[in-house]
Amino acid sequence: MPLETPATGAREQLAALAARAARPGFAGGGLLDGSEAAPGTRAAAVLVLFGILDDRPSDHAPEAALSRDLDVLLLARAATLRSHPGQVALPGGRVDPGDEDVVAAALREAREETGLDTAGVEVLGPLPPLPLEYSRHLVTPVLAWWRRPSPVRVVDVAESAAVFRAPVADLLAPANRGVTVLRRDGAEWRGPGFVVRQDAGEFLVWGFTAMLLDGLFTELGWTEDWDLDRELPLPPQ
Which DSSP helix (H) or strand (E) runs through 196? Predict the structure, then answer.
């Protein structure tokens, strides 16, 4: 098994990915290469913020040469929200008229949702936007590095139920991975899922956020073999 490298090595890999994504013709394994959005789609952005855990590294040793201290910022949406209630998400939201660009929107939303001090965030670059047909949004993931971590919290209980830093090694661990299956109106939608255990409880990452993280980990060469037949039960819809 490869020896651990400092989490800053992950920062270099993420920066290299952002640089590749900025070049014409970037192909990111299908998920990260973007596609056309339908007319009337609204622009949105999410902040994919990686950093170094303060005091709680993962117990799982990744197969990739990654530090067990590496983490990513996530939040659990409030169960009372009309859109995607209770789901785990990356900080983000719609691009407002006052936002300079998608990067500014991602930083603003993260600050409003988690209390993040964006002055300590190094933006590495945006990835190609991804369409969400269900909600008619075109979402741009913005890769970033937490060079000066700050406390985060639930800012508005009407919007979020929990804010936490999830160890990337925990997300990569095969024991925490599986497939989610959404069955509705005779149709079936399958996608990746991650189980995250925090002081606030156990969370299931699925849907758009899980697809984005899965594609990102695959593009970076971090993914470990996991059971593609293991089904993770979805919370009540």
Answer: strand 187-198
